[in-house]
Design a protein that fits this description.
seven-stranded mixed beta sheet, 197 residues, alpha+beta, 7 strands, 3 helices
């Protein structure tokens, strides 16, 4: 059904749209989408040296969840501006399980889902339980120095992650923060070569 080898219990997609801020109209509205997969942790409750199966799952989920975000925003992949990723392991998991999903192989397929992406994908990982907030950090996909796109998105699910699960999330935006005005490199000035500028 999903084309992903992970055992997925639940998929959730959130879309957040900000129309006004501090009495000011935000035009066009700023929009963020997060796609979340709640998966079984194959290593819950035991120490395993080789985390390659989780690395492979991360590679599959990067593109899968990234495409879900782009679709939810109703944009072309090239129109995506920011991205981020996060994972929360249940109490029987360890932080390294989240790291295995997020770091070695998730970035490349996520970049393909949003066309390009010269900058590092911001990430966070934590251990928690059902209903706990997971913060997904956001940054411009092509230039880390674009301050208007330093942001984040909070997500939570009332029943995840259970002790033997991992909640994996990807977020994508079509804009920066609403009413951004703290200076720095502008999105229109991006060179997109070194991931910084």
């Amino acid at each position: 059904m999903t084309g992903v080898s992970a055992e997925i219990r639940k998929l959730v997609v959130f879309v957040e749209e900000t129309l006004s801020e501090m009495g000011q109209t935000v035009s066009p509205p700023t929009r963020k989408a997060a796609a979340v997969a709640v998966i079984r942790n194959p290593f819950a409750g035991r120490y395993v040296e080789d985390l390659a199966p989780l690395i492979d799952i991360g590679a599959e989920l990067g593109g899968f969840l990234g495409r879900k975000c782009v679709k939810a925003l109703g944009i072309e992949p090239s129109e995506a501006q920011s991205y981020g990723k996060a994972a929360m392991v249940g109490e029987d998991g360890e932080l390294e399980h989240a790291a295995a999903i997020l770091h070695p192989s998730m970035g490349k397929p996520l970049r393909e889902a949003v066309e390009h992406g010269a900058a590092l994908v911001p990430s966070s990982k934590k251990r928690g339980g059902p209903g706990q907030v997971l913060d997904i950090p956001l940054g411009h996909k092509d230039a880390a120095y674009v301050r208007s796109h330093f942001d984040g998105m909070e997500i939570w699910l009332n029943d995840a992650p259970r002790a033997c699960e991992i909640m994996v999330a990807v977020a994508v935006t079509d804009s920066g923060r609403p009413l951004a005005r703290v200076g720095g490199l502008k999105a229109s000035e991006i060179e997109g070569k070194d991931g910084l500028r």
